[in-house]
Amino acid sequence: MKILSRQLVTLLVCICMFTSTLYADNTISADEIDSILATIPEESALPVWPQARELAGLGDGYEDALTLKLEGATPAETVAVAYALMSLGAQRDAALKLEELIKNKQAPLERRFDACAVLGSEGGGYAKARLRSMLKSKELEEMIKVKVAEALWQLSYAPAALTALTEIAQNSDNVLVAEEAVLTLGRIGRFSEAREMLAELAKNPGRNGQEAALLLKLDDEYTLHAETDDFAEELIGEVVEQIRTRYAFDTTDPDEAEQLKSRNLASIAAKKLVRSIDDFNDYLDEEDYQEMLNSMHGDYGGIGAYVGMREELFTVLSPMWGKPAFKAGLKAMDVIIEIDGEDITDMELSKIIQLLKGKPGSEVTVKVVRAGWDEPREVVIQRDLITLPMLYSQMLPGNIGYILLTGFQDDPDRRVSTSSELHQALIELLGQGMEGLILDLRNNPGGLLSEAVKVSEEFLERNKLIVYSKGKISKQRNYESRILGDPTFTGPMVVLVNGGSASASEIVSGALRDHKRATLVGTKTYGKGSVQMLMPVEATGGNTRLKLTIAKYYLPNGECIHGRDKGIKPHVEQEEPEFSGPERKLRIKQLENRDIAVWLESNFDANKDQFIAAMEFDNNDPAAYPGFDELYAQLVTAYPGIELDKDMVRRVLRSTLFNFIRESRGLDTMPVDIQASEALQRAILIMGDKLGALPDVPVYNTFKDKFNEVMVAEQDGAEANDEAQGKAEVAEKVAE
């Protein structure tokens, strides 16, 4: 009983301590809010926006305390607190209180206007619904309806808002209300509906007449600028005409004559023009547009191989295990010279890939050149739908989870998505005792924004801002994404990024960085974050399309990630080591001649367990690979012009074996090679610091000492910078 009593007392003490701490935190929050609210002016004509912004600046964690302040608040306090809550993502309670204020006929008119303005500037989907409902109300005064309509237009460009403003402007019996509706139409740029009414209003003296005149003047200047600024049109037209009339083309070359047609020259100019502004803009001519439609509609299959151009030859870089190319016998570095009897040696890569695509189950015949063959051979491949793994995951030593995302995708047919696969992988790793996570987004080209949001939700707390967009054309392109659910994993994180991390990868890594949720390691990301629209071009009768960036994405800290010089800089920069000249030559030879791959094909099955064990950890010892000396001697004989050493050959063998195991044998046991990636090694060491220590395992011990020296030097440098910055700040204060 005494033991039980002690335990009970201990529990009560803990509860009291927790309660007192919680009470203290809540008291601090309430005191800070009260001190700001105390400065709000009593006069309804004075603005409350400085206090509203100050409340919003308190940041996340104050939402509950702010919500409590809505009860019993004055109209001015309601406006300020609701603004702060909506800025922090707590939309519903704030919107309802603002709606209540807007409908309250006893409240000062200015504060009711303020409430409409907050909904129009900070509201989301719920605010739109409430504004629509109020606009239909028969109880709401006309002047308030003008402000409600303006707010609704700001949020969604809803036709109902435009209709309401026009009807009030034309039919209201209250002159002041009608004038306000007319001015509102001018403020939102609807001069086609308001111009005549604005012209009449501009004849009147006073503030409303002056504003109407100013709005008309601004619209006239804009229209004049748009009509007279035709320099670009004149310049391009003159250049095209001079080329067509004066360029000395080869009259015997029909291709050159075709190229010089006005339509073709204009298409070239359009492509160059839009791409010079943004690499992701494009002008799609009739052929480009049709190809895009073909790729988007219907079920199209492929051969299942990584391909590319090598020495201007269309080359199979690696067939995917179990896919059609693999089953048909294609191998890495096979060169394809014909597809279904069509010579492709001078064809663009995109055109070649289109020829390889087709209906699943259909056949395609390719003519292949391979090292060791006396002459090209024809290979028949049966196309199939190609699906790739959305992620790889494994547990590293020390309860460190590792997840590699290959993209941000959603496949409704298979009922899988990147976020659902990630969630399952996290659950499995947590079940295995995961304490920290390394999320690998290197060379991840991105994908769906919706999946980037859902992936972020696995790690960030509710209401955290993930990303927002800003554009010129439509409020529909200006929106923000926030966390709606609770995170699956809340432990320490490191995110790996590099120059191949783009779009959705940058949104996720940027959100995790800005909310201090993860340490980023690697090199600067690509810099792709844009919303694009495909618009028909009237000059071609709508047969071509302009793909234009109409909005850009911004991270929670306000940083734009889109642009040639943009991208996200990681906390810890760690590049992968460059290959020496001899090693680069050897790697190229292996791509061309496949010496090591052929040797592995002959030796792997008989020594499978030893090869897999060496892949997991070889202690930098060439002898870990069965038959290594035989391979080394073979390569020395084959390449007398390359200065080979055994460690170099070991590294090249290791990288070849890694792909061989995973792709040629279909074994997903090694999604990442710890020994080959210094960025991953650095991430593991950083994770070790977050968790307290790394286990004493050979694969970690090989790089601990190397990076410890680097990390100490970086820490010394950071401290020196902090000291210098501190001295500079002191000097500035003294100077002041």
List keywords for this structure.
736 residues, alpha+beta, 6-stranded mixed β-sheet, 5-stranded antiparallel β-sheet, 13% strand, disordered N terminus
Short characterization:
The protein has 736 residues and is of the alpha+beta class. The chain is 52% helix and 13% strand.
How far is it from the N-terminal to the C-terminal residue, by CA?
Answer: 69 Å
The DSSP helix count reads 28
Contiguous uncertain segments of 5+ residues: 1-25, 730-736
What gross morphology would you assign? globular
What is the averaged pLDDT score? Answer: 84
Oligomer: single chain
Cα radius of gyration in angstroms? 33 Å
Query: How many E-type strands?
Result: 19
Main beta sheet strand tally, sense and closure: 6 strands, mixed
What percentage of residues falls in helices of 4 or more residues? 40-55%
Spatial strand order of the main sheet:
8-9-12-15-16-19
Strand content of the residues, in percent? 5-15%
Briefly note the structural class of the backbone: alpha+beta
Commentary on this structure:
- The protein has 28 helices and 19 strands.
- The chain is of the alpha+beta class and 736 residues long.
- A six-stranded mixed sheet has the order 8-9-12-15-16-19, with helices on both faces. Strands 1, 13, 14, 17 and 18 form a five-stranded antiparallel sheet that branches. A four-stranded antiparallel sheet has the order 5-4-6-7.
- The longest helix is centred in the C-terminal third of the chain and has 38 residues, at 698-735.
- The chain is globular, with a radius of gyration of 33 Å.
